[in-house]
């Protein structure tokens, strides 16, 4: 969709037509992604990369793009890897923890290493600031953190929050669990309750429900304790965080969830975005024979990729009008940074950190 529109709006006046070169891989792979990027660079001679979305595939591709002086735009950049790539994730998380203890800007913030990379989406590293503002608002100073090391999204978010809470002197209790094991969640909650009355659950969606049911059984959902969790996007792909599971515990779960405060990404609600979402659903059927489930949202990230392609086109258009080189990745990227424009997802400003 975006490519068709930018060709008509920007590229046609230069007698240029951009075409898509697409490669895919089955999971978030830090080993496959750079190989595919090399094929696209040397064989297809691409002038820009759009994606990957996943952080641990994006990082090595962004390094290569910097060496090739090729622009790279992603609508995400923080999606955790698959469980098969957890060793890669662990190495990057260790690097992040060692080098950025006093910096919450994220793994990819070093512009000297990634000078042609532009990210259009949120950064999980900002979650520390979000939670800090909540804790300040309610004067909460002693926090318990429970995280699921078997779920990579939970592990990634949990470790980032752990670092921020330790830095702020608020982490009173921290415990890791293996969400694949059939454990008694009561014991984790009893231990946490000895140190704090605010409990952050960095666990997969199905475990949030189990923890809240256990908390309800222990009498911890009557207002004396508060629970928080993180659900960046809604949908089964990201894990179901809802209280409703269609079983006999639904009534208890619904009551228990009254003690749960959820942190989620703001979903655009403008008419412009809704029109865009309708077109995406239509094109998914026409182009890919894929029907998006009824009630499933077209999330922010899809819009962010769309806006990223438009931002790239604006920079290419300006470069061409000024007689510049459209293969000067650093020059094109510089035109995208420190810039404000109105996109599908709202008014965007690309930060130059």
TrEMBL record:
Signal peptide: none annotated. One of its GO terms (molecular function) is peptide hormone binding. Its main location: membrane. Residues 1-348 form the Receptor ligand binding region domain. It comes from the Eukaryota. GO terms for biological process: signal transduction. GO terms for cellular component: membrane. Keywords: Glycoprotein, Membrane, Receptor, Signal, Transmembrane, Transmembrane helix. It is found in: Membrane. It is a single-pass type I membrane protein. This is Receptor ligand binding region domain-containing protein. It comes from Phaedon cochleariae.
